[in-house]
Amino acid sequence: MDFLKDISSHYNYAVTIFLMVAGLYIVMARGNMVKKLVGLAIFQTSVYLLFIEPGKIVGGTAPIIDPAYSVYSNPLPHVLILTAIVVGVATQALGLAIVVRINEAYGSIEEDEILQKDGEA
Amino acid sequence: MTAVLPQLPVLQVVIPLFGAVLAGFLRRGAPAFTVALVATWAAAAIACTMLWQVIAGGPISYAMGGWAPPWGIEYRVDLLSAFVLVLVSSVAAVLIPFARRSVTLELDEGREAWFYCMYLLCLTGLLGITATGDAFNAFVFLEISSLSTYVMIATGPDRRALLAAFQYLVMGTIGATFYVIGIGFLYLLTGSLNFVDIAGRLAAVGPDQFPAIVAALAFISVGVGLKLALFPLHAWLPNAYAYAPSFATTFLAASATKVAIYLLIRLYFSVFGYAVDYAALPISDVMIALSVAAMFVASTVAIFETNLKRMLAYSSVAQIGYITLGIGLANVAGLTGGLAHLFNHAIMKATLFAALGCVFFRVGSVSLGEIAGLGRRMPITMAAFTIAGLALIGVPGTAGFISKWYLALGALDDGSWLLVFLIVASSLVSVLYVGRVMEVIWFREPTSRACIAASDPPLSMLIPLVVLAAAVIYFGFDTRLTAGLSGDIARALIGDLR
Question: Hey, are the CB atoms on A95 and B166 less than 8 Å from each other?
Fold first, then answer.
C-alpha cells in the first residue's frame, strides 16, 4: 500500500518519467528523422517538468516581501526552464533545418533509405 | 589597464561572443575572418594573463552583474580552468590563420562569414563552460558550443556531413539533457547551482538521500560521457570528424572533447568528491574498464580505416581513453598523466588534422589510396604529420611520451602491472595504424596525378602546422606547463576528495 501511496502522492514524477522514457524510446526506435526530433522534444519537455514541479508550493505566491504573504514558490526553476526552452527551440529549429537539407540531398528522411543510398554511392 | 584586469573572466567569453555577432553581420568572408582572428588572439591573450594571475594569486572569482555568489552567477577561474582556457584558446589562436585558405576552398562564398560566426560561437561556448562556476550556466554554454558545432559539421563538402551533423545533434542533445537531469537532482538536493556551493551543501545531505546523489552522478556521467565521446558513447564522433570541413575538424578535435572532459573532472572531483565516497561505488573500475576498451577497440578499428580523417577520429576515441584512464585511476600520478594527455593530445591531434587539411587543400582527398608518396611532394606537411604520429604512439622525445609515462606511473601506484602492460600494448596497436600511413607516404611512388602535382601549402597554412609540430616536440622536453602544472592541479583535486 505504501508503494501505491507514494505513486498517488508523487504522480507528477510518474508523468515526468513516462514522458522521459517515451521520448527516448521514440528517438531510438524510429528511423524517420522528423519523428526522432519529436521524440527529442518530448524527452526535453520531461526535463522542464522535472525542474518546474518542485518549484511550486500549493498556496505559495510569488516571492513578495510583505507581511501579508508567508509562503513563497521558488521562481528560480521557472527562470532556468525558460532558458532551457529557448535552447530546446533552437535545437528543434536547427534539427529541422538539417532534415530539410538532408531531404534535398538524398530525397528521403528515412534513416535506413539514406544509409542504403550512401552505400551505393 | 588596471581597470580591465578585474573584468578578464567575463571578457574571455564576451569578446568571442560579440565577434560572432559582428562576423555574422559582415556577411563577407575576408572581414569576418579578420574578426575571428582578432577575437581568437584576444581570447588567447586573456587566457594566458589569467593563468599567470592564478599562479601568482590563487583562484579568481568574478560576480556576474555584481550579484554575489552563490545567488548570482559566478565565473570562477582556478588553476584547472585556467589550464584548459589556455589550451583551448591558444590552440585556436595558432590554428586560426589556417582557416582562411582552407575555408575558402571548402565552403561556398556566401557561407564563409556564417562559418566564422559559428566558429566564434563555438569558441564562446567552450571558453564559457570552462570559465563559469555555475552548473546551469555551464549547460547553456554546452548547448551554445554544441549547436554551433552541428552547423559547422553540416557545412562540410560531402552530403554525408548533413547526416553526421543530424546524428550528432540527436546524440548531443540527449547528452546535454542527461546533464540537466543530473543538475536538476543536485538542485533539488541542495537548492544551489554554484559548483562550490553545491559541493559544500552536498556534504551536509543526509545518508537517506544518498541514492539521489548517485542518480545525479549517473545521469551526469552518461550525459557528459556522450559529449566527450567516452567509449561506447562515441558513435557520433567518427562521422562528424570525417565529414566536417578541415578547419572545423581540427579545431573541434583539439577543443570540444577536451572541454567536456574538463567538465567531468570538475564535477567528479570538485563537486561530488565532497559528498561521495568513491571507494564505495564501482565508478573507478567502470571508468578504467571503458578506457581500456576504448584504447584497444578504437585503435583496432583505426587500423582498418582507409579514410585518414576517420582513422584519426577513431584514434581520438582511443586517446580520450587514456585521459579518462587517468581520471579513473584517481591518484596523483594518474591524474597528472590524464591532464597532461588532455593538453598533449589536443596539440598532437590539431597537428595531424591540420596536416590532413593541407593534404585536402592540395590533393582534394584524404583517402589512403590517393596520397601514396606524398612525403616527397609535401615534405614539410608530411614531416609535421610524422612527428605528431610518433607522439600519438608515445615515442620518447615527443609530448605523447610524457603523458603516457605519468599514466604508467599512476597505474603502478594503483598496484596494477596489468594496466601498465595494457598501456604499452595499446601503444603498439597505434604503431600499426600510424606506421601504415608512414609507409604509404614515405616509401611509395606517387601514383595519382593530383599527388604528383602537389606541393607544400601556402604559408598561412604551413606556419600554424609547423608551430604545432614544434610544440609537440617542445612539450616532449619542457614539461613545466604540461606535467608540472598538471601535477599541481592533480594534487589540488585529489586533496578535494573525501
Answer: yes
Residue B464 contacts residue B98 (beta carbons within 8 Å): yes
Write out the DSSP string of B381-398.
HHHHHHHHHHHHHT-TTS
The answer for residues whose C-beta is within 8 angstroms of residue B103's C-beta and 6 or more apart is B29, B33, B112, B115, B116, B245, B247
Nearest C-alpha of chain A: how many angstroms from B319?
A: 28
Indicate the number of domains in chain B.
1
How would you class B420 by CB atoms within 10 Å of its CB: exposed for 0-12, middle for 13-18, buried for 19 or more? Answer: middle
> Read out DSSP for A63-100?
---STT---B---HHHHHHHHHHHHHHHHHHHHHHHHH
Picking from A44, A51, A99, the nearest residue to B166 by CB comes out as A99
pLDDT digits (tens, 9 = 90+) for B222-254: 999 999 998 888 889 999 999 999 999 999 999
Q: Is B362 within the bounds of a domain?
A: yes
Domain containing B404 equals: 279-498
pTM over 0.90: yes
Q: Which residues in chain A have their CB less than 8 angstroms from residue B134's CB?
A: none
Write phi, then psi, for A102 (nearest 5 degrees): -65, -40
Reading the block at residue B494, the C-alpha cell is: 585529489
> For B306, which DSSP code?
-
Q: Which residue has the higher pLDDT, B56 or B452?
A: B56
Q: Does A43 touch chain B (CB under 8 A)?
A: yes
Contact B321, B233 (CB under 8 A): no
> A68 is written with which cell numbers?
501579508
Any chain B CB within 8 A of the CB of A33? yes
- Neighbouring-strand partners of residue A110: A32
Q: How many helices (H) does chain B have, and how many strands (E)?
A: 20, 2
CB atoms within 10 A of CB A83: 14
Is any Cβ of chain A less than 8 angstroms from the Cβ of B157? no
B contacts of A102 (beta carbons < 8 Å): 162-163, 166
- Cβ B154–A101 below 8 Å, yes or no? yes
Domains in chain A with CATH codes: 2-120 (1.10.287.3510)
Answer yes or no: do B163 and A80 touch at CB < 8 A.
Answer: no
Grid cell for residue B85: 582556457
Burial (CB count within 10 angstroms: exposed 0-12, middle 13-18, buried 19+), residue B449 = exposed
pLDDT tens for each residue of B433-471: 999 988 888 888 887 777 777 788 888 888 999 999 999
Q: Does A47 touch chain B (CB under 8 A)?
A: yes
* Residue A32 φ/ψ, nearest 5 degrees: -75, 125
Distance of CA B121 to the CA centre of its chain: 16
> Does residue B207 lie in a domain region?
no
Contact residues for B186 (Cβ-Cβ < 8 A; gap 6+): B135, B198, B202, B213, B216, B271
Closest CA to B163 of A35, A68, A98: A98
Q: What is the Cα–Cα distance from B338 to B336, expressed in whole angstroms?
A: 5
Q: Is A83 on the interface with B (CB under 8 A)?
A: yes
Amino acid at A37: L
How many other β-carbons are positioned within 10 Å of the β-carbon of residue B49? 17
